[in-house]
């Protein structure tokens, strides 16, 4: 080989070696990039699916991944669903959402506003037992257990005509009393209670009904509920009457979660001035008997619907709800044979005597 040929061959080998050296970094870069590309290929389907789901759920706009979006929208959807269920029918006021994390101050304000609204609806609210003196009221209240005030009012005229005083009833023949009280149900037990009550009044209190809570609850058949009925309506001393209607409504309104009468009494008593306790009881009980019934409340005809967390438990259609109203609200007789004049002026109708109609 000539010197020229050797020189050319040597030049070509050098050129080839130089090219190989230049290509080596490119291969290294490619090798480093390979895992990233592989990872990108693996995550691409998941990203695409997430993006597609997010776009679909937002009507074509970009959104966060599905899980994050679901977590954020779930409470809103639940709230919207609940609000839709609470939506008032046409012609009805907007209904407030159930109190959530309601402060004590907010609860007091809402409770007192409900009482003010009820006072406007039932300005004639009163005890729905006929009575002319404390003795008649305490006996009638004992007899009202497990029956209606109407049935008691239809029964007591004959009882008080024959036994007008505690002394008279204390000396009564139990069988004769049982026959009079038969329409009220549980007449044997009630006979024992009212005769025992009358004996205690005669022997321990000179034939007079005491005006103190601690004395009243010592009498046979008299508990705190009966005692507060007597104190509030015969003596003008404030008290909360926790009957079945009162218990039902204050729990529906979320004034308290207590279930025992004495604890309900204490919890509700903290929300109102003591001077309002007696009339508060009348307002709540009137509302429970006329509109907010146990089985099918007339929600669509309720004047405090915007303040009631339980709105929707009963009939919400205004026309159908109006058909559920009772007593004077529905145009029917009340429970008293001799109701107050204010009740009559408001359109109330006296109840018929026993056996009438």
Query: Structural class of the helix and strand makeup?
Result: mainly alpha
Shape: globular
As a whole number of angstroms, the C-alpha radius of gyration is: 39 Å
Order of helices and strands: HHHHHHHHHHHHHHH
Distance between the termini: 144 Å
Number of helices: 15
Classify the beta-strand content into a percent band: under 5%
Query: Number of DSSP strands?
Result: 0
Biggest sheet architecture: none
Average pLDDT rating: 83
Helix content range: 55-70%
Low-pLDDT segments, ≥5 res = 1-41, 53-73, 75-89
Write down the oligomeric state.
single chain
Write the SSE topology:
Elements: H1 3-57, H2 66-86, H3 104-121, H4 134-143, H5 149-162, H6 166-170, H7 174-181, H8 187-204, H9 213-216, H10 224-234, H11 244-252, H12 261-269, H13 277-290, H14 318-322, H15 341-345
Helix pairs in contact: 4-5, 4-10, 7-8, 11-13
Describe the structure.
The N terminus is likely disordered. The termini are far apart. By secondary structure, the protein is mostly helical.
Q: Can I get a quick summary?
A:
With 357 residues, the protein is an all-alpha fold.
What key phrases describe this protein's structure?
357 residues, single chain, disordered N terminus, mainly alpha
């Amino acid at each position: 080989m000539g010197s020229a040929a050797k020189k050319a061959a040597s030049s070509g080998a050098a050129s080839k070696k130089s090219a190989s050296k230049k290509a080596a970094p490119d291969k290294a870069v490619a090798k480093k990039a390979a895992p990233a590309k592989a990872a990108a290929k693996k995550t691409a389907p998941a990203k695409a699916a997430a993006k597609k789901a997010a776009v679909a759920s937002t009507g074509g706009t970009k959104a966060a991944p599905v899980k994050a979006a679901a977590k954020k929208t779930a409470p809103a959807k639940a709230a919207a669903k609940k609000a839709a269920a609470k939506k008032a029918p046409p012609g009805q006021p907007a209904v407030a959402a159930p109190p959530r994390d309601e402060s004590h101050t907010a609860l007091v304000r809402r409770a007192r506003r409900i009482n003010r609204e009820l006072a406007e609806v039932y300005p004639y609210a009163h005890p729905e037992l006929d009575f002319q003196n404390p003795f008649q009221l305490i006996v009638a209240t004992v007899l009202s257990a497990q029956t209606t005030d109407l049935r008691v009012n239809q029964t007591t005229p004959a009882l008080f005509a024959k036994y007008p005083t505690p002394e008279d009833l204390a000396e009564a023949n139990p069988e004769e009393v049982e026959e009079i009280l038969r329409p009220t149900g549980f007449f044997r037990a009630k006979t024992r209670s009212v005769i025992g009550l009358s004996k205690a009044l005669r022997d321990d209190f000179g034939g007079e009904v005491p005006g103190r809570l601690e004395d009243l609850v010592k009498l046979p058949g008299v508990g705190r509920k009966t005692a507060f009925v007597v104190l509030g309506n015969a003596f003008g001393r404030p008290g909360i009457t926790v009957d079945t209607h009162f218990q039902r409504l204050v729990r529906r309104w979320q004034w308290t979660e207590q279930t025992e009468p004495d604890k309900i009494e204490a919890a509700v008593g903290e929300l109102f001035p003591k001077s309002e306790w007696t009339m508060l009881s009348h307002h709540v009980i009137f509302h429970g008997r006329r509109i907010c019934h146990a089985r099918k409340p007339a929600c669509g005809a309720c004047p405090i619907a915007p303040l009631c967390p339980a709105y929707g438990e009963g009939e919400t259609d205004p026309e159908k709800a109006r058909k559920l109203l009772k007593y004077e609200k529905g145009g029917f007789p009340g429970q008293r044979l001799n109701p107050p004049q204010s009740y009559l002026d408001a359109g109330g109708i006296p109840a018929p005597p026993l056996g009438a109609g």
